[in-house]
Amino acid sequence: MAAEEAAPLALNYIPEVVLKKRKNNEESAIRRKLQLQERVKRRKSEKFAIKKPEQFIRVEEVEKKKMVGPNRPQFVLFGSSIVQMSYNVGGWGAMLADLYSRKADIVLRGYSGWNSRMALQILDQVFPKDAAVQPSLVILYFGGNDSTNPHPSGLGGHVPLPEYIENMKKMILHIKGLSDKTRIICLGSPPVNEAKITEIFGTAFDDQARTNEGLCKYNKALIDLCEEMDVKAVDLFTAFQGKDDWAGSCFIDGIHLSSDGSQVVLEEILRVLKRAEWEPSLYWLTMTPEFSEDSPYYVVGPDGKNTFNISGHICVWQRHLLNIE
């Protein structure tokens, strides 16, 4: 008789290899759970640990050592595309950095396409109140995108005027609270060349158009807010129109600034800095260049006996090159 057939497997039979794999999976899951609990526990203990005063001092000293020293005054340019593109060749941000070389560090925080609503959401990240070094000056610009006509979909950059003003007020208060020596200059929205915009972009953005009528309203509202809050402001809408052929010379595409447009912005900012009764002064000609002491290693002067300290004379050349009065 043939060998007896193997007995059929029970319905609840689970192969040994499956049982072994299941056990390994369960053990791995338990280990991962314990590791996660340990990480959470460690983070909580670190977060809520009470530091002694000397520990705070050590942390601040470490943070300062991370910076390239010595520490100079810091000027932060915060805004939308008018700010982001200010470091282009002939841009007003680049010219500021040139003027303030050896005097202040110009920090660019420009975000093309942004409105005041977006800026408010990341304000604490750009200007943390617990930073080891706070800016001496913030040049703030939002409004051009806010002022565009509302798109039928509800999307787009438009921010209603009352909300725009409230957003700017919150930003100003936050920046004022960074330190007793942090100063602010708000830039109003410059006008645009509407015909040039249509020439370059066609009718693609007609339903969210940027118009001088809208820009004028937002510019005026910001200037009024700054006067109310005792904050320095630049009325770019008016300043641009004081220049001959402003519509043809101040823009590269009807919206964004050419070198001529940037020159207007630079001159208006410098005018505010020169007139401001701030202590210390932040006007470039009154600030002392870093490491400005005389040295026997400078170029020898015409008398053949003394060296020529060139640091102060750079200012004369800069004024000539940038056509600054």
UniProtKB/TrEMBL annotation:
- Check the record and name the Gene3D superfamilies matching this protein: SGNH hydrolase
Recorded GO MF terms? hydrolase activity
Q: What Pfam families does this protein map onto? A: Lipase_GDSL_2 (PF13472)
Q: Where is the SGNH hydrolase-type esterase domain?
A: 77-263
Which UniProt keyword terms apply here?
A: Hydrolase
Domain of life, source organism = Eukaryota
Q: Which CDD domains match?
A: Isoamyl_acetate_hydrolase_like
Similarity comment text for this entry: Belongs to the 'GDSL' lipolytic enzyme family.
Instruction: Name the PANTHER family for this protein.
Output: ISOAMYL ACETATE-HYDROLYZING ESTERASE 1, SGNH HYDROLASE-TYPE ESTERASE DOMAIN-CONTAINING PROTEIN
Name this polypeptide is given: SGNH hydrolase-type esterase domain-containing protein
Organism field: Dorcoceras hygrometricum
